[in-house]
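Can't paste images in this forum, so I'm doing it all in text. The chain is below; anyone willing to post the predicted structure tokens underneath?
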Amino acid sequence: MVAVQGKVAVVTGGRRGLGAALVDELLARGARKVYSTARTAFTDERPQVVPLALEVGSPESVAALAEAAGDAELVFNNAGVLLPDPLLTGSFERITETFDVNVFGPLRLARAFAPFLAANGGGALVNMHSVLSWMAGSGAYGASKAAAWSVTNSLRIELAAQHTQVVGVHAGLIDTDMVSDMSGPKVTPAEVARRIVDGVESGAVEVLADDVSVGVKAALSGPVENLSFALSH
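Text version of the structure:
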């Protein structure tokens, strides 16, 4: 478990949506500094926030972030894309982009920051997944989140020796711009952020951020044909 008070954190995709809520939550709990990233340069007037540009698909950009934020003790892999192209008929370029951002992006961050986290006492690595990690029907997006879940579970084993807490987060629809045109019950970014940071501070390795995720996780032991979902607009 890692107390946030006095710690230095990195939040990818921290300019808006859940990322912005995570930055707010970390500051509210006494984080000393938060590196907040977006794809393009931006400003944040709060003295504890260091805004930086990051392209998670670029190894050079990720390496530059790790060098700039080498004092990080908490890393939140929140940046992602929602491109639910069908696997058979969708654009293969968009499918590739989905995996590059949602799977290889967090892995690039984990590889780049692991030595710094070790040097700074272990800390925590938090990866944002989805309830769709466990459900069929959302094409490339769901497949990428399933792969990201597996990556996180293996990273947890590989990073155990350096005492890095690895947390996987699952949630259904979060009320952000990304899913603004989708129907269904949505949880607020602030509530998800609170539950994520609660999990980090309590020593959790997995956070089920809403009732939907709790229900679907419980259904994993049942028939696989029950684990299906179609994104609706």
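The longest helix spans residues 92-119. Strands lie at 8-11, 33-38, 49-53, 74-77, 124-128, 165-170, 206-208.
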